Amino acid sequence: MQRRILALSVLAAAMGMATGTAQAQGDGFPNKPITLIVPYGPGGVTDVIARALGVSMGKTLGQTVVVENKAGAAGAMGVVDMLTAKADGYRLTLAPVGIFRQPYIQKVPYDPVRDLTYIASFMTYDFILTVPANSPIQNLQDYVAWAKQHPGEMDYGTPGKFTANHVAMALLEKKTGITLNHAPFKGDADAINALSGNHIKSAIFANSILPLVQAGKVRALATAADKRPAAFANVPTFREAGYGFDVPSPLGVAGPKGMPQDVVQKLDAAIKVAMDDPGFQQVIANYGIRTDYRDHKAYAAFAQQAFAQEKDIVQGIGLE
Asked: Among residues of the chain, what percentage have pLDDT more than 90?
């Protein structure tokens, strides 16, 4: 009898130690480097900002955040990666708004709401319609008027089909009745070169175009922001111009579905702290990026709303 009691006591002690060890492992996150997937090529604005965010997050988390570039699939490669990643917080991805649009345009292997854990958003892109500095078109009214007089002759560059840039211009066509000629490129860099060389008449970019606007090499006509960004304070929005639309594009961090809540909260908090880090603030200021923080609950709610709204947008402007 005594031996049985002793055996049970040893078993109970062992179970207690195992439970304590498991708890300690949970409390110890992270105890190794974290990988953050950037679903675009290296060297672009998103890549630069993601690396700055990772450095700042690492200060709070006490571990290195390693950026891994996986370009392709209209920015959805990170989401696809999450389908097989372990839900332990050590492999994450940026989640561009295009992931909510792609399922309505083509067959994809993921559900953007069901297959991800949303952690936090930290910035938003603004999209700026531009023309070469030597263009006779001085403002958005000139642009629309010229396009009406020359149907199908006004071309515009974007970093690809079905991007938010493309959506903004499709909305402009729908609102004004003009017919434009879409010229999709592999990315902003190629489109910028085409615009600067006068190979296309116009292009719509995210904030990567700011240095050329500041240098007077291109002229900004309008932004698709909900309000004038500080970096483009002298540029009207499409809504201000009377066309009644904007194209919000928050960017955040997500992980595989089923992540532990305490890990999500720790990563969320690290992102929020990172946004105030001077190093991160300097990088986003270089490109006129606006911060846009949503915690994990608000970001998950945004994902559900955005996924529902994209269906109406895609159908409404005929991008299917």
From this structure: 77
Amino acid at 24: A
Residue 26 lies in a domain: no
The CATH number linked to 271 is: 3.40.190.150
Which structure tokens are listed for 276?
């105030």
Q: Which residue has the tokens 């919000």?
A: 248
CATH number at residue 139: 3.40.190.10
Residues 169-208: tens digit of each pLDDT: 999 999 999 999 999 987 788 889 999 999 999 999 988 8
Q: How many CB atoms lie within 10 A of CB 301?
A: 12
Residues 40 and 77 in one domain: yes
Q: pTM to 2 decimals?
A: 0.83
What pLDDT, in 10s, does the model give residues 239-270? 999 999 999 899 999 999 999 999 999 999 99
Is the same domain home to 57 and 205? no
Could you give the CA distance from residue 224 to residue 226 in angstroms, rounded to a whole number? 7
Structural domain harbouring 263: 32-124+249-316
Question: What pLDDT does residue 280 have?
Answer: 97
